[in-house]
Amino acid sequence: MKPDELRNLYLSFFKNNGHEIVPSASIVPENDPTTLFTGSGMQPMMEYLLGAKHPKGTRIVDSQKCFRSQDIEEVGDNRHITFFEMLGNWSFGDYFKQEQLEWLFKFLTRDIDLDPNKLFITVFRGNDKLKIGKDVKSVEIWKKLFLQVGIEAKDIDFSEKTGLQDGRIFYYDETKNWWSRAGIPDKMPAGEPGGPDSEVFYDFGADKNIHENSQLKDEVCHVNCDCGRFLEIGNNVFMQYQKQADGGFKELSQKNVDFGGGFERILAAINDTADVFQTALFIPIIRHLEKISDQKYESSSNSKRSFRVIADHMRAAVMLAADGVYPSNKEQGYFARRLVRRSIRYAKMIGVNQLFVADLIPVIVEIYQNSYPDVSQKLVKIQSVLVQEENKFAKTIEKGLRELEKYQEMTPPVAIDGAIAFRLYETHGFPFELTQEIAHEKGQKISLEEFENAKRAHAVMSRDASSDKFKGGLQDSSVQTTKYHTATHLLHAALRKILGRHVQQKGSNITVDRLRFDFSHPQALSQNEKIQVQDQVNEWIDAALPVKVEHLRKSDALESGAIAFFVEKYPDEVTIYTIGDGDAWISKEFCGGPHVKNTSEIGKIEIFKEKAASAGVRRVYLK
What we know:
The structure is a single chain. It is built from 18 helices and 17 strands. The protein has helices spanning 3-15, 46-49, 97-111, 136-148, 159-162, 263-270, 283-293, 301-322, 331-349, 357-367, 373-377, 379-409, 418-428, 432-441, 448-465, 479-499, 527-542, 554-559; strands at residues 20-21, 59-67, 83-92, 119-124, 155-157, 169-172, 178-179, 193-203, 230-243, 249-262, 505-510, 515-520, 547-553, 573-579, 587-590, 607-614, 617-622. Helix 3 (97-111) packs parallel to helix 4 (136-148), helix 7 packs antiparallel against helix 10 (357-367) and helix 16 packs across helix 17 (527-542).
């Protein structure tokens, strides 16, 4: 089955059952400063799960683009990927367990013809401490559904200790069968919704000896085993609880269904292959890599891993770029850069010594030309930014690898440590993560603490050497720099208003003479855009808006709408500066000050220069 066919079948099935189809949201979340990427189908739906009315009604279906940066280093096995699509259907206080499980079973076994004998189910075991019981209702529904196709579905508890025991439905605790954005109940902040879930697994068969040939062969095999025999293809989340300030849970005013089906994984199940990289979403990329490397994907486990990393990372980099995320050294761009650089490194491991990114991108774009036509429309831009990153890093990696080889060629060979890793980073720009991976492949372990110690020592020396060289900046609390500091907040708000919500601050530098401000934006500002931004800032200054300071809990600050990037770096208690009156504020940001008391104190500003700072990042100068 072709990917477009599967996606269309799913959307059509739920449309025929009263759902409205909505397009995928961007991989870069809007109005959610708590995370860099859309990592699940539920993220864009959060406000509706909490009770807001969706403009399309109470039954929604979509295929959501997602990216999970935390899985970058997991890529290389048969199932982990960073960019993926999540097939989702949603009930916002409409239907619940009965309809959801019936529809899903029908779709899997009838519409895409999966063998019900290969489907296995997990449900929530219950937790007395949470005062939430066993999900016996889902078990009852599943048993009836399997019985309709002649299968007696036996339910088993503690299979992780005792094994499958001819079971088909298995109970697990909240580490496996509970879903919220924050993970298990103990980690959920107050106000976060979550609930028990029922997951569907596809069995690639005991006859293939997948478990027996894995590193887990001496352990008990069960559906949540990591051996690769069972692949989770769908998760029915019954989003019915909300975490309270006292650590307990109360039921939401509406019971919701949040289904997430792994698009790539369902495709693998349809093909009855345990390897998602052997589906039509990856095969064209693999074939192209085979051609330019003169190696075969199946030639060895090491080469297979390299093929998988490149195919995954380049596909993800293309889809990120299509949504405006370009390689850089900050925030989302850091991960885009890392994807491209890891791809280059793994390409060398399979014999690709030439530049390859420009020719590979059209192969990836063609896979998505029907489902996401905007990717095709942005082909030239995507090639431009990713090839630029490849050109930059090609020289860096050559130098770094040569330096690493020198240590290995010494007599006796010198073990790579944190100090060496920092030297490579400082001298050649060679990323610590790559040095760490190379060391690991040679059976060596680099201490991150050693690397950070070397980095700190270097920073101290640099500061001592240049302590009198630079003046101003945020440490200078003179009247003028204080004015400019408040002006950064106004400028940020104006840029987001005029150019769009994708604009995010990427850095700033303030002296008594001028303000420099970096922000994410894919192209140069037109003269008209610069005038609009400048006029908007001056209008807010003339309005004599109050600047209010508050000290809040971080969670309360985020709930109030305050903007913060890299939110995890802030302590539990934060300082918020709000510009404007009451609910009509125009800027609300995490910040440490100093600031003026009223915008009229700033005086008229002028944008006197604008240029590129890096790929996807612009820089304006203001005085």
